[in-house]
Amino acid sequence: MTKWSKKLAELGIELPEVAKPVAAYVPAVKAGRQVYTSGQLPMRNGELMAVGHVGVSVTIEEANACARQCALNALAAINSVVDLNKIEQIVKVTGFISGGPDFTQQSAIMNGASDLLLEIFGDAGKHARTSIGVASLPLGAPVEVELLVRLAD
């Protein structure tokens, strides 16, 4: 067992099955020493964890948990194209949050994803991040997250 697999086991975290794409794309693409994920929805056991807009029908706590699940799903997508243990650095996290018209706490939601990545990867999990508020997301999801990672040689 190597570094990141060991850390996941220590934290009691199991990677989920890779979510099936809902359109014409693949979950992740390796390009040189980088892996880009498609946007990952908060799917757990084949179903969305929540549906709706944050601050309207989805609480901040629920959306934070959704962002965490999205990050886990993104790691599973990465693991489907390259061994997760090859990750050298989480480079960028981009989050899309479907909120009500006055919702402005996108960063608080994205902490769910960022905190998970820091728990698993430590300093290698420190990343740049963008949190974007949107009117709606696929399937009515409240959160969508994509990752960019750099691989070791």
UniProtKB/TrEMBL annotation:
InterPro entries: Endoribo_LPSP/chorism_mut-like, RutC-like_sf
Gene3D superfamilies membership: RutC-like (3.30.1330.40)
Domain Endoribonuclease L-PSP/chorismate mutase-like: 7-146
Name of protein: Unannotated protein
UniProt organism field: freshwater metagenome
